[in-house]
């Protein structure tokens, strides 16, 4: 779907409310047909960014372009974008059909000419046959589908979705994520999706923009964001991560050795430049760590980082176990499938192994958690 043609561009966008900058110096390029997510904790500026794209909020500084046109000060109803909100915003006194017809009516399309478009929109969201119902006769998931149909019926260039699944229960949310993704595949429309749910962003997006305190921390594909987080904030916000604090004891051309509680940890991936003695944070995903009873030559050859630690905590999670081990004052978590668990107990002394290429190191001063 994504053909790299720029659909939406934000250039040096800042939005202040009084003296408070909700969004600061944001530069973004969203491609045509892309599923692009704005992800970050509550209050990081996601909705404000989306509202500026929609034309519901004016930036304090900067420029917004839609399909190459400067729309910074263009009113919302003249922009070829629609917004879907979490609370659906369906008109309760109108039937489903009338709700979907509404944006076409605003464009002076006659009802007789709109019927085929309404049917098509209903079919797109798998709601054919529900046209005569009122919103209160629908479930939450069905209402959200109708809200989607209404926002797609006039085929905007871009659809802006502000936590659209936030009001749904967990199972329905997962089902609707698939519905949304399927719909997006079937229409040639750019989706910009606001969420604070990292799993949702990772599973649905072509690219993700991670924000914190009004600033962009990273823009990338889910793979890039997960496997090469640009900061410890991104590393902590996306997926599960171990953060091991220590000091640089040796700095090579392509690697760095960090002392963490007396254990030397080798890392080949680092952000920024380090010198001996620098305080750093070594990050490693729990699923990259292996556990063994013995530290034989095979284990040592496989894992450049290997040392002994004792089991401190075990959490059963259904299909797997989360095991926390302690060495000195430091803790490290890893995941073991239920079949590999083999009755491990708190206090067991075992060997941890992980590869140097799976350790990403950041300067401690960069820690933005
Ligand atoms: P959430 O996930 O909780 O919706 P968000 O990332 O979407 O958060 P925004 O709604 O964009 O965050 O808000 C960013 C910051 O701007 C917040 O600190 C918020 O309190 C502030 N803010 C938003 N709108 C206004 C306003 N109209 N007046 C003053 N401050 C505002």
Automatic annotation (TrEMBL):
Domain of life, source organism: Bacteria
A single GO molecular function term of this UniProt record: ABC-type polyamine transporter activity
Span of domain ABC transporter: 8-238
GO CC annotations on file: ATP-binding cassette (ABC) transporter complex
Enzyme Commission (EC) number: 7.6.2.11
Keyword field: ATP-binding, Cell membrane, Membrane, Nucleotide-binding, Translocase, Transport
Catalytic reaction list: ATP + H2O + polyamine-[polyamine-binding protein]Side 1 = ADP + phosphate + polyamineSide 2 + [polyamine-binding protein]Side 1
Pfam families hit by this protein: ABC_tran, TOBE_2
GO biological process, one term: putrescine transport
Similarity field: Belongs to the ABC transporter superfamily. Spermidine/putrescine importer (TC 3.A.1.11.1) family.
PANTHER family for this protein: SPERMIDINE/PUTRESCINE IMPORT ATP-BINDING PROTEIN POTA (PTHR42781), SPERMIDINE_PUTRESCINE IMPORT ATP-BINDING PROTEIN POTA (PTHR42781:SF4)
Subunit structure: The complex is composed of two ATP-binding proteins (PotA), two transmembrane proteins (PotB and PotC) and a solute-binding protein (PotD).
Function: Part of the ABC transporter complex PotABCD involved in spermidine/putrescine import. Responsible for energy coupling to the transport system.
NCBIfam families: potA
Protein name listed in UniProt: Spermidine/putrescine import ATP-binding protein PotA
